[in-house]
Amino acid sequence: MRFAVLLLISFLAAPALSAQQRAVPSDGQWLIEPGERSGLVRLTIRYGERRYHDSWNSEDDVPMSQLVGLSAADMRGAGVTVHFKIVRSAGTLDCDGWFDDGKGSGHFTYQPNPDFVAELAKRGINAPTDWEQFQMTMAGVGLDLVDELARQKYDRPTATELARMGTHGVDLEYVRDIGGRGYHLRDSESLVRMRDHGVDPDFIESLNRAGYRNLSAEELVRLRDHGVDPEFIASLDTAGYKDLDTEALVRLRDHGVDGDYIADMKEMGYAPSNPEELIASRDHGVDPSYVVSLKQAGYGNLSLEQLRRARDHGVTRGFIARVKARGYGKPSLDEVIRLRDRGLE
Fold it and tell me: Residue 141 has what DSSP assignment?
């Protein structure tokens, strides 16, 4: 299970240190509470240096099996002193503390694992800095992730890239899940960018079902950022606009051309084959209510271009009524526009 890590940084004191300069913590605090499901616990790990106002706060439901030396009986005790380890590929947290009625807290000391560095070297990956190794320990980055990346033929990551993947939540489960949906993106930065923008396996699967497969990482991120989801795509399909490319989907979404707008305009008699016509009309404020108002003023069967031009020049039903009241009869739309442009009130 993913061991999420959040790095919270404040600049209230001295500037933050770089990854190469940052001191690796020797200790920190742990807290454990019952998890949401049987066999899981809510584990929180904290580390902070008040001097720099830096803090690590990782929290996730993890299986009891990750807490080596801690039993369920210990957790149920009243004031029970405990000693256990959180063992990860990159390092170990040696924990001491106590439990009372299922809740525990205490402190840990951190021990990096030199064998992890040696195993990375066997896989052609450079040695991480002390700080990067700590980051990978906290994030649960293991050799299984490295091997999965190689199996899916990703470019070989550097230690820095592995640490970045871990701190951004790109774990073994995420890589396997998106790989299982047909996405093998070659570089780790694409994975980080997708993760940061909320492109998760469920979103990818929903696009697959909607017929959008084998997209680039940038296309996935762009669709997610602009709110293009299966419901929006389905509304366009229903309205008659099928198999649009991703850029067209984004443009329609950004300009407010959804299934309802398309259906309403179609009811007014406007169903252009090119959706760009609808985008332009939406941008110029041509909506069904405006179409109806001009029809009521005696100007029906206008093209979308004419409607946009009338809207741009401020032609309204009220203005048309004032023109007629001044004895202009029924002028053409061009004449109405000229009168509007000349300042007729």
Answer: -
CA–CA distance, 18 with 124 (Å, rounded to integer): 25
One-letter amino acid at 334 equals D
Q: How far apart are CA 19 and CA 135, in angstroms?
A: 10
Question: How does pLDDT run across 119-166, given as a tens digit for each residue?
Answer: 999 999 999 999 999 999 999 999 999 999 999 999 999 999 999 999
Residues 64-77: b if buried by 16+ CB within 10 A, e if exposed: bebbeebeeebbeb
pLDDT score of 23? 77
Distance in angstroms (rounded) separating the CA atoms of residues 165 and 315 = 56
CA dist., res. 325 & res. 123, Å (int): 86
Instruction: Report how far residue 296's alpha carbon sits from residue 64's, in angstroms, rounded to the nearest whole number.
Output: 72
The percent helix, strand, coil of the chain (3-state, each to 5) is: 45, 20, 35
Tokens describing residue 243:
């198999």
pTM, entire model: 0.80
DSSP-assigned letter for residue 157: P
